[in-house]
Amino acid sequence: MDKNIRICIVGGGPAGLSAGMYLEKKGYENYTILERLDRVGGKCWSPHYNGRRYEMGAIMGVPSYYAVHDVEEFCGITHDGPKLNRNYKNARGDVIEPFEPKKNILKIPRLLKMKKQVKRLGELLETKYKGYDLNGHRGVSEGRYEGFSQQNAKREPVSGVNPHLKDLALPFSEFCKLNGVELIQDIWIGPFTSFGYGYFDEIPAAYVLKYLDFQTCMNFVKINLWTWKEGTQFIWESLNDHLKHPARLNSHIEKVERKDGKVYVTVNGEVEEYDKIIVTAPLYIPNKRADGQVGMVDYFDAREDEKTLFSKIDYERYDVLAVETKPEDHPEISYYVFDNMVPEKLGRLMVYYRRWKDTKDQVITTYALRKHKDKAEIDYDVCKKMVLDDLKTMHNPATNVVNEWSVYYFPHVFSKDYADGWYEKVEAMQGKYDTYYAGEVMSFGDMDETAEYSRELVERFF
Ligand SMILES: Cc1cc2nc3c(=O)[nH]c(=O)nc-3n(C[C@H](O)[C@H](O)[C@H](O)COP(=O)(O)OP(=O)(O)OC[C@H]3O[C@@H](n4cnc5c(N)ncnc54)[C@H](O)[C@@H]3O)c2cc1C
Q: Which pLDDT belongs to residue 158?
């Protein structure tokens, strides 16, 4: 492709900014990043509180975050944040140790069985499901894998045929049953459901295992995690500062028209002409959101195939509160509440996070899900009240809510559409209307998967 082409990138989150970085590294310098908000980072949002930053969005990474590491190297920064730690409580607010055999004598047989099943899953993923952990979903529903190895930072191209991969379209609970490893869900659920990614009876195994591949899940178990002192937003602010063309903030895109091999973008009242456009912002949002965020099909001259396919995308309603407590009510550590990570407890507090060990002069952040495929969505205010009540039950009552966020979170498709080849169809459309689709739905809703997808998109098409 001609290195001088004019490329418009929609969205200044991890996907959009890293698309800019990888394009620049490959010699494409004629790009423009349009961000609708007055800040970069998207769901990596780290506001200030009494001289330090806390996390309203992304919190952590793992050592296999190769794309995030590329960004760190590009900017000369590193993961220098507070060490994470956590404990567990039951729904009554008692501290428990669910994985400690000595504290759970009656559960010892189950714990031993679980340990065996974790080992078994590890073996199955290496053999029966070879190729499962590539970034993105190309070929999976057809029993193929195609992409770049995630075994190490080199990310060599790999491809192959493996009909078993079709099992990844099943909801994760069914996938586990099929393979006789149901108990492993007790481990995988912590960094999945409480992190807002939905429930195992509704989310295809592909999303669960591509994000929580065996190694990554073990890093969560061993708390071998990265954080950033200035917050995850700082990674993307640093990248923005190092790009030749930083994102243009407060860009309101009114219209995108694609005709005669050109892309016309009406932004803040002016029409701009480009050759190609990369969309990292949401492709489809079913109902109008209070925060004004809309999907691409609403402001593009969307074609029928785009409308049909993108209307299959659903997303999670994930709510974050930042609260103050009295010093004597401050939690001594972060807590997970497994009892509340089931659909029957929709809207209840699943995890709450204490960021700094050395001070009580900080906010605590809380996390709850309001939606399950088969249940009525819980109203935002009802959920907020439930979470605040739960904090009282946990013996850490809040005095004040200082920040709150209802997030457009983890766009994904359900099992039927996954099995019907949704990803193959969308991948076949890449470039068709001088348009490329990137961002969370194309891989998975975490910082690294989405930045890695942008890397591979640039590698594949530019
Ligand atoms: C509470 C929470 C906890 C999380 N925890 C973690 C974690 O610990 N680790 C991890 O790796 N990830 C975590 N994530 C997920 C991670 O933050 C996201 O997956 C990642 O930010 C996705 O990057 P993205 O660029 O694809 O999308 P986004 O971050 O959503 O960025 C999209 C950008 O596009 C902009 N935009 C939208 N519409 C338009 C438009 N019409 N025009 C122009 N711009 C537009 C948005 O304003 C936004 O800046 C968490 C997220 C949340 C909310």
A: 96
What number is the average pLDDT over the span 238-249?
A: 98
46 lines ligand 1 (CB under 6 A): no
What was the pLDDT predicted at 293? 87
DSSP 161-216: E-GGGGGGGSBHHHHHHHTT-GGGHHHHTTTTTTTT---TTTSBHHHHHHHS-HHH
Judged on CB neighbours under 10 Å (0-12, 13-18, 19+), 144 is: middle
Mean pLDDT of the 314-337 span: 97
Tell whether the model's pLDDT for residue 92 goes beyond 90: yes
Interval 418-429 mean pLDDT? 98
Mean pLDDT (whole number) for 219-229: 96
Give yes or no for residue 391 CB within 6 A of ligand 1.
Answer: no
- For residue 217, CA distances in Å to 113, 220, 231 come to 18, 5, 22
Q: Find the 176 Cα to ligand 1 centroid distance in Å.
A: 29
What is the structure's pLDDT at 287?
77
Please list the alpha-helical segments (H only) found in 378-431: 380-393, 415-419, 422-428
pTM higher than 0.85 for the full model?
yes
Residue 446 near ligand 1, beta carbon < 6 Å: yes
21 C-alpha to ligand 1 centroid (Å): 17
- The atom number, within ligand 1, closest to the CA of 251 reads 43
296 vs 8: CA distance, rounded Å: 14
Among 21, 38, 43, residue to substitute to test ligand 1 (most atoms within 8 Å of Cβ): 43
Ligand 1 center from residue 292 Cα (angstroms): 15
Instruction: Give the pLDDT confidence of 412-421 residue by residue, as tens digits.
Output: 999 999 999 9
> What rounded mean pLDDT belongs to the chain?
97
Residue-range domains of the chain with CATH: 7-44+233-313+416-461 (3.50.50.60), 99-221 (1.10.405.20)
Ligand 1 contact, 251 CB (< 6 A): yes
Number of H helices and E strands in the chain, helices first, is 14, 18
Q: Check pocket membership of 37 for ligand 1, CB cut-off 6 A.
A: yes
Best of 211, 293, 443, 446 to mutate for ligand 1, by most ligand atoms within 8 A of CB? Answer: 446
Degrees, nearest 5: CA angle 64-142-18: 35
**Residue 36, ligand 1, Cβ within 6 A:** yes
Distance 118 CA to ligand 1 centre (A): 31
- Ligand 1 atom closest to the Cα of residue 367 is 1
Predicted confidence (pLDDT) per residue in 373-407, tens digit: 989 999 999 999 999 999 999 999 999 999 999 99
Distances (CA, A) of 364 to 70, 326, 401: 31, 11, 10
